[in-house]
Fold this sequence. Notes:
The chain is mainly α. The chain has one domain. The chain contains two helices and no strands. It has helices at residues 3-25, 31-121. Helix 1 (3-25) packs antiparallel against helix 2 (31-121). It is rod-shaped.
Amino acid sequence: xxxxxxxxxxxxxxxxxxxxxxxxxxxxxxxxxxxxxxxxxxxxxxxxxxxxxxxxxxxxxxxxxxxxxxxxxxxxxxxxxxxxxxxxxxxxxxxxxxxxxxxxxxxxxxxxxxxxxxxxxx
Length: 122
């Protein structure tokens, strides 16, 4: 529930109570009639408060469900990305080892050729 919704709900309840009290104080009715009207107004106010609470409860539950779904989706994405990174690192290591071996062979062949030429020229 957002801060604005909570403030509205509090203001709604407070306004209803103030309105009921002011209405009772200025009503030109007998005590019995006033009490009956007060009971009716209180029931109406409680009913409206329950409706508002249920409305916000549903919104809260919907938002919570969406957050959980998004969390699951993010978790799956992160796990998938982790697996891809692990595969890429492994593949990179294999490629680097292969390149290292090929370079060593090329250097060894170059050194052998240089030494062979050096022997022939001498």
